[in-house]
Amino acid sequence: MEKIQTLLIILLGLGVFVWRMVQKAREMAARESRERPALPKAPGLPPTSFQDLLEQMKSQNKAGNQPQPATSQPTTPAGRPLPREQAAPVARSLERTEVDPRSLETMPTARSLETPTRTPRLAASMPRTTALPTREDYWTRQASHSTDEARQDARRRVQAMLRSPADLRAAFVLSEILKPKYE
């Protein structure tokens, strides 16, 4: 029962609110109509017929379309004469027209980016793994190479690896696996 009473009170309040808004709108419209000056009445239609107006327009067009004397010099819409431009000397072209055009429709030879560009070495040219170097051989080789030569050798190896797209892709994947940017 309380819910119905609450609902009725809300509906009654809403009805009073709408009624007051309508009363204010009427009051404001009445006040504005009193304060506004009266607009003059629009003139009525002319007493002439359509045929009379058509004849009048035809006579005005005939009188207004009198041929004007032809002028030798063109003018702007404002009536001033257009400036005369001097023709510049013809430019000499540096374009070579005797060159035969090449067709761009021929397809280049297909080359896979997955395969390395280095040629594989034959097994006969690879070093043998049966003979292990001794400790003395390692130290003599290290002493014979200078640090500049080692740097140049490392630089050459890195440049050779960067020339192959497959090696670049593998390096990128490994860098993401070993040290991801976003963790």
UniProtKB/TrEMBL annotation:
Alphabetical UniProt keywords: Membrane, Transmembrane, Transmembrane helix
Transmembrane segments: 6-22
Location of the region described as Disordered in the Swiss-Prot/TrEMBL record: 31-120
Bias (Basic and acidic residues): 93-103
Top-rank lineage group of the source organism: Bacteria
Bias-annotated ranges (Low complexity): 66-78
Listed name of the protein: Uncharacterized protein
Species of provenance: Hymenobacter qilianensis
